[in-house]
User: Fold this.
Amino acid sequence: MQYVGIYDKNGHVAEQIKEMPFWSIRNDFALIEPIQEEEEIYTYLNTRRPNICLLVMEQNEGFTIERLKQITSLFLGIKIILIGYEKSYEVVRKIFLSGVFDYLIQPLDSRQLEESLIRVYDIIGLSYVVNDLQMKVDALIDNIFLGGGQEEIIIRSMIGQIYEDWKRDGINCQLIADKAKNHIYEMLIDRKPWLEKFLYRNDFTYKFGFSLMRKEEIIKEWVRCFGEASKMVVKYQMIDDKLVYRIGKYVVVHVDEKLSLESVAEGVYLNPSYVSHIFKKITGMNFTDYMAEVKVDRAKVLLRDNRIKIYDVAATVGYSDAEYFAKTFKKKTGYSPTAYQKMLEEIYGQNK
Assistant:
């Protein structure tokens, strides 16, 4: 939970802020009762310890830069958002140099305040993930690229640390876990860009307006998502073999195009017969079966979006004939694309 304090001498802006719908939508933020006396600011910050404090400046008066520097230096853990009228570049520059997190100009725009508050959370979350979880993050990524098998052990340790460090506050823990999950996903994609086409991005990204999950539910979801990443790495690890690297990688990178043995061979500057021969020799798989397998795996990800039509999925993965795509998909999975999509809806619910 992020607690937000307010100092507002006249109280008008504080009332405006209290009426914003943001507070009912975001149950991970809570307002502390505002104060109006400037001399109470230090006591207020010291005793109430808000995570964020909004300081409202009146027109033609307000905090001096030195006063701001004192506040930001004494209360390093509190993010200060200043709300005022000053638009001069030099003054605004000095305001930021004083250590405030953000500066918003009156009249106050509720959308800008919401964005500023959420940015605080993003920074806090990512900083914790990078500084406090990095060893476990690296261990999970290394495990995935070495073929998996230890995901649950590492994930349980990581989620356990989050719950310990964030005092078992369910909302904070879930939000930090979401931030960590997205960070790990981005690192995976940075290492192997082709993975992006075979993992459903929404499984790894922060969900605004989320429903609170129990610790075991978070662990179970992480194990499923990162287990899928391990599975894809293992399945297509042959594309890292030096003899078929160019061939395999060309297929996964160009999976959304219409591919054939001839077009791939042309793309990697090799003879079609050689491509077919060397691929079968190294991987034990017929090259045309491999292309179909890659396209079906890509289609599985696209079908997670229950708004997308089957013929659009077929077209996206390079099949001009939707019926032929459906036959290929069923041959590889045992399900028609329609039945597979319905099964996904039952498992995951509506598109998220």
